[in-house]
Amino acid sequence: MTRDDLATINSFRIRCVKAPLDQPHKTAPGTIEAAPLVLLDVATDA
């Protein structure tokens, strides 16, 4: 594989979201109702 065969990244975007849980999870300090996630969008020339 040569360098010309590799995809080039044109742009990327990072987003932080809180995804709600179907069933809240109870812990000693409290209830977890959402899961924090990081979403990464990558645009290439491929």
Describe the protein.
This protein is mostly beta strands. The chain has one domain. Helices cover 0% and strands 70% of the residues.
**Overall pLDDT metric:** 92
Number of helices: 0
The ordered string of helix (H) and strand (E) elements is EE
Q: How many β-strand stretches? A: 2
Please give a quick description of this structure:
The chain has 46 residues and is mostly beta strands. The chain has strands at 9-26, 31-44. The chain is rod-shaped, with a radius of gyration of 18 Å.
Present the secondary structure layout.
Blueprint: E1 9-26, E2 31-44
List keywords for this structure.
single chain; mainly beta; 70% strand; two-stranded antiparallel ribbon; 46 residues
